[in-house]
Structure formats: structure tokens, C-alpha cells
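A further point concerns the way the authors explain their paired sequence and structure data. For illustration, here is how one protein appears when written out as sequence plus C-alpha cells:
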Amino acid sequence: MSQTLSFTQFPLHELLAFESAARNGSFLKAADELSVTQSAVSHRVINLEKRLGVTLFVRRGRGIALTEDGERYLEGVSGALTALWAAGEELRMAEHSVVRVAFAPSVGIVWLLPRLPEFMKTNPAVQLDVATVATPEEVSRGEWDVLVHFGAGSDDSRRVHLLTDEAMVVASPGLFNEQRPLVVEDLATTPVLRHTLLNWPGWVSGAFGKKAEATRYMYFDDSITMLEAVASGAGIALTTRVAASPYLKSGALVQAHPFVLKDNDYYAEISEAGELKPASRSFIDWLKRIAEAHPISG
């Protein structure tokens, strides 16, 4: 009949005390190694001997020596502890080679993804697990090591500023352009596509000098999907320059009004789990370097 392993029968701290004392030939040296008192080591070994019903050490003044039972038991305990360490090390190395990166689609697809090959080339042992998230609240902190997103972030001590962006209104070329820019009266007839994180009222006040509401809104949690809709002629949209840059460059979209709202920032944040990984910290450092080398420009 099989038996279930239970460390309540043989507590790990007692096994560690025994193994260290046997390997060092001294309770005092074991105490130094385990950062406990000599009496604590002695007490743990005595408890273990009681559980086993055998004597593991012969006490000789201040010294100790293993008994025959102790020699046999040490072989089994050392093997078990080595296997336990190896399993933990295997798990640690496997986990520490993976950096789970979550980012907003706009900054991720347009600004970050084209530069990832550089990181992969200089960090061949690191594996990236990439996910896009519409808002930082969409995923729990336990699901990512590094978050790259728009906004203020959730923990100042773990957040670093990367880029300052600006918000602008864009449209398809046939709707508005430099010759026929958007005016406040157009809001009564033109659908406005809005991203949940961008400050549309602030842009309207800055552009027209007063508050104004559109007759019709469409809301999006994904900036790229929103811009695809604008390019198809669905209306106008407030977006960031980094998200709009490929569309502006190709001519699929144009800036519908010259005013830009300069209160938008991208940040990188590292989670508690990410802080334990040297690879995650290296990724954050790399992000800061490329942000300095490749800022967003108007």
C-alpha cells in the first residue's frame, strides 16, 4: 500500500539541520550556515532522532560524528535535498528566461514591435511572451512582468516614464483636410469615434475655446480598430500621434484640425514577479534606452 509523503512527519527545517551538521561535522558551523543558533540546530536534530527512533550522531565533547544509521540516512536526505534543489533551479531558470510583456496596441504595434528584433538579437536567452491589453486594468499584475501603456500607471515606485505623446483629431482625406479643417459646427453632423483613455473634452476646449458635444459618438477600447474605422470614412477620431503615424504617413488619414493636446504619456511598469527576474529588469532598461533614442516627434 502506497504512503503519502508528509513533511509534517519530517519537517524540512529538521532535515536541513541534520544535513548541514553532518556535512560540516559541527552544530556550530551548521548554525552559521543556516543563520540560527547552535542550540536550535541541536534541538532540531534531537527532534529528528526522536521521530526516527535512532541516534544519528555521536556527541564527542564539542564535536560530532555520524553513526552508521546517520551515514545511511545522510545518503537519502542528501539525495532528496539535491533533487529538491534541482527541481527548483530548473523551474527558476525556465521562468526567469521568460518575460511576459503586455502593451497597449497603439504603442506596441507602431513603436515597440518594430524594435523588438534588436532586443531579441542582444538577449538570445530571453523568451518574450507578448500580449496586447486595451487598458491596464484588463489584466491582473500576476499576468505580466512588464506593462507598456498609456496613462499614469498604478505604482510610482515601479513605473518609469518612456514617451510623451500628443492627441490629435484625424479623418479620412475626403472628409476634412488642411484646406477644409474641422470646425465646431461639424460636431453636429459628424460622428466622433472615441478611445476610452483619451481626453476628448480637453481637446475640444483647446481646439475651439469652448465646450461642445457631438451629436453622435462611437466608443472603442482598441485604438488600431478605431483608426481602421476612421480610414473607412466612419467619422473623426481623437487619437495619439504614435498610433496615427502609419496612417498619416501612408495618406490613409489626415490631421483634421491643427490643434494637438500635449498631455499624453506612455510608461513602462514592472510587476512584483518581474522584479525578481534579471531579464525583466534588462527589458525595462532597454525600453528606456530606445525611448531616448526614438522619441515621438510631431
